[in-house]
Amino acid sequence: MRCFSVYWWTKLREIRVFSLSLKAKNNFLMAFTFRQTSKDPGSSARCGTISTDHGEIHTPIFMPVGTVGTVKGVYHHDLTDDIKAEIILGNTYHLYLRPGLDILHKAGGLHKFEHWDRPILTDSGGFQVFSLTPIRKLTPDGCTFASHIDGSRHTFTPENNVDTQRIIGADIMMALDECCPGDADFRYAEKSLKLTQGWLERYARHFDETEPLYGYTQTMFPIIQGCVYPELRKRAVDHALTLDNANRGGYAIGGLAVGEPTEKMYEMLEVTCPLLPEDKPRYLMGVGTPANILEGIARGVDMFDCVMPTRNGRNGMLFTWNGIMNMRNAKWERDFSELDPSGTSFVDHYYTKAYLRHLFTAKEMFAAMIASEHNLAFYLDLVRQARAHIEAGDFAAWKDAVIPRITQRC
């Protein structure tokens, strides 16, 4: 079984000596901060600014998912200049397996490896262990799993997961957790939460005892689990807050949109968000549809990520201000109008509906690229408009008016 090799434990000791000297030379580094700038009077929606050493993030924000060091089918130039992404994701499980820690460290971390100069957030990989690996073993020590690539065995512990994410070099690191199934009974969910809490204590301690490796600030977010049980969600928050300090830049809400009814997800947000610190951002993991995002914002969530814009885009689904379009439908075959007259991406005005339908019918990979770019630009426009309406003080009314329109089928 492959775990964190002796090579890497030795190598990390050497790297940490260097990183401590780097820190001494770089006292100008900015601390990770969050500043709330406005609040909606009719809901719990709020605007804020997160400051990192790689730039500012304006919340509420949607974060495109770049699981293995790329947002599928999208150039970085388009992510910044067309889509207007302010932060993207990477995934610890996938990056640990491929390209691996040696290559990432030699590259100088994920930012340099993929040539991205804005903030990055990395998940711990706990969800991937839950969703991708049928052979896994969870113990108080950590989780052992089989690679989905070649079946090789690996172990994540809270300590080596911190070290792995230090090597990847994300600005925001997620604590190792178990993602409890959405339909779990109370007994299983309680047991799962206790496991996650034990891991969080060790993760937080090891994070506090280690330093960033590349000369810029990193922060960590504890993940609030508890399935669909309010009592467990409250316990999770209470426990996480006992570990709160300046190194906990924000809090993530996990274990939602994993099989539970949508209304249960909203209920858990209503339970959880008011208990979390006002002066730190709240991140709803892996969510979701445009309507989910607006409802999450209304309940006090600041940060979102989801593969839906790109995954659904690759399958011909476009999200627009006038509803959801299936670009494989025959109705678009002779429609030579702009792809989306209300869209903010150049693809919306450069290509036609008929052309995109043709590309999907012909199974051209360019179809997925156009659709992904459109959807991501729409998601970023969605949160940008949400921010504008929060600042204007009419977010709640705007949300209620716009959700029926964006969820209808075109």
Please provide a written account of the structure:
This protein has 410 residues and is of the alpha/beta class. It folds into two domains: 45-306, TIM Barrel (Alpha-Beta Barrel); 313-407, no CATH class. The chain is built from 16 helices and 17 strands. It has helices at 6-25, 76-81, 92-97, 101-107, 110-114, 126-132, 158-168, 186-209, 230-242, 262-272, 290-298, 308-314, 346-350, 353-361, 365-392, 395-407; strands at residues 33-39, 46-52, 55-59, 61-63, 88-91, 120-123, 136-139, 142-146, 153-156, 172-174, 219-221, 223-224, 251-253, 282-284, 303-305, 317-320, 323-326. The strands form five sheets. Strands 4-15-14-13-12 form a five-stranded parallel beta sheet. A hairpin with a 2-residue loop joins strand 16 (317-320) and strand 17. The longest helix is centred in the C-terminal third of the chain and has 28 residues, at 365-392. It starts with 5 loop residues before the first helix and ends with a helix. The model is unreliable at 17-28 (pLDDT under 50).
Features:
410 residues; alpha/beta; TIM Barrel; 2 domains; 5-stranded parallel sheet; 4-stranded parallel sheet; 16 helices; 17 strands; 44% helix; 17% strand; globular
Count, helices: 16
Main sheet specs: 5 strands, parallel
Given as residue ranges, the uncertain stretches (5+ residues, pLDDT < 50) are: 17-28
Q: Give the fraction of residues assigned to helices.
A: 40-55%
Question: CATH H level of the largest domain: which superfamily?
Answer: Queuine tRNA-ribosyltransferase-like
Q: In the CATH hierarchy, what is the architecture of the largest domain at level 2?
A: Alpha-Beta Barrel
Alpha-carbon Rg, integer: 21 Å
CA-based shape:
globular
Q: What is the CATH third-level topology name of the largest domain?
A: TIM Barrel
Number of strands: 17
**End-to-end Cα distance:** 51 Å
Our count of domains comes out at 2
CATH class category of the largest domain? Alpha Beta
Strand arrangement in the largest pleated sheet: 4-15-14-13-12
Mean pLDDT: 93
Structural class: alpha/beta
Q: What fraction of residues sit in β-strands? A: 15-25%
